[in-house]
Design brief:
By secondary structure, the chain is α/β, with parallel strands linked by helices. It has one domain: Rossmann fold (3-Layer(aba) Sandwich). Strand 5 and strand 6 form a beta hairpin. It is globular and about 50 Å long. The model has no long low-confidence stretch (mean pLDDT about 90). Bound molecules: zinc ion (ZN).
Length: about 220
C-alpha cells in the first residue's frame, strides 16, 4: 500500500511523514527533490525539466507524471511509496490515478485536517533561527535554537495577508482532490489539532486499521 499526504501548511504533515516513512520503511517522493535529481541526469526528461526550471515555468502535469513514473520504476518492487506534494490539482489526480493503475499500485490518502484559523495561528506565531534558519513552531518554548544556540526571531515573510493567500489557494486546489478520494474510500483522516505525539499516535492507529480493512 502506498500513501499520498494531504495537509495545509502548518498541519505538521512534514513532521508526521517522517514518522510514517520510518514505521513502514517507505520510499519518499517529494516533488522538489525529485525534480532536482532528474535535472542532474543526462536524459531527454532531464533536458525538458532543466529548460522548464530555467525559464521559471510551472512544471506541466505530463512532466510531473514522467518524473513520478521514473521514481516508481526505480523503487524496489516490494517497498511502499509515500507521495508528498502530489497531486496538486484534479487534473494531476486523474493522471496520477492512471499511472498508479498502470503500475498496479494501491494507495491511500492521509489527510491531516487542520482548520484554516488554526493554521493561520500556527504560521503567524512560528519563529526562525537568526543564524541557521531552522523553523520552530509556536509550541517550541525555548528562545534559542536547538541546533546552533542562536536567537529565534519572528519570520519577516510571515505576514498574515500572504499566509492567508497561500492557505486559501491550497484549500481551493486540494479540498476537491480530498473529496474525490474520500468518495472512493481512499482517505484516512487525521485530526491535526492535537500535539505532535498525539497526532502521530492517531495517524499510526488509523493507518493500521485501514491496512487491516483493505487486506
Ligand atoms: Zn540555529
Amino acid at each position: 500500500m502506498d500513501f499520498v499526504l494531504f495537509g495545509i501548511q502548518g498541519s505538521g504533515k512534514g513532521t508526521q511523514s517522517k514518522f510514517l516513512a520510518e514505521k513502514y520503511n517507505l520510499s519518499v517522493f517529494e516533488t522538489g527533490a525529485a525534480l532536482r535529481v532528474v535535472a542532474q541526469e543526462n536524459s531527454d526528461l532531464s533536458r525538458k525539466v532543466k529548460e522548464i526550471i530555467e525559464t521559471g515555468h510551472l512544471v506541466p502535469t505530463e512532466i510531473v507524471m514522467e518524473i513520478i513514473e521514473n521514481f516508481i520504476e526505480h523503487a524496489p518492487k516490494e517497498q511502499s511509496l509515500l507521495f508528498d506534494g502530489i497531486p496538486r490539482s484534479i487534473e494531476q489526480a486523474e493522471a496520477f490515478d492512471a499511472l498508479m493503475k498502470k503500475h498496479n499500485r494501491d494507495f491511500a490518502g492521509i489527510y491531516f485536517n487542520l482548520p484554516k484559523e488554526e493554521a493561520m495561528r500556527r504560521l503567524t506565531t512560528r519563529r526562525i533561527c537568526s543564524k541557521c534558519k531552522t523553523v520552530y513552531p509556536a509550541a517550541y518554548a525555548e528562545n534559542t535554537c536547538s541546533n546552533c544556540g542562536n536567537e529565534l526571531v519572528t519570520r519577516t515573510d510571515d505576514n498574515a495577508a500572504s499566509i492567508e493567500n497561500r492557505l486559501n489557494a491550497y484549500n481551493k486546489e486540494t479540498i476537491p482532490i480530498i473529496k474525490k478520494y474520500a468518495k472512493q474510500n481512499l482517505i484516512i483522516e487525521v485530526d491535526a489539532k492535537p500535539s505532535i505525539e498525539k497526532v502521530t499516535e492517531n495517524m499510526l492507529e488509523k493507518v493500521e486499521m485501514f491496512l487491516i480493512k483493505s487486506s
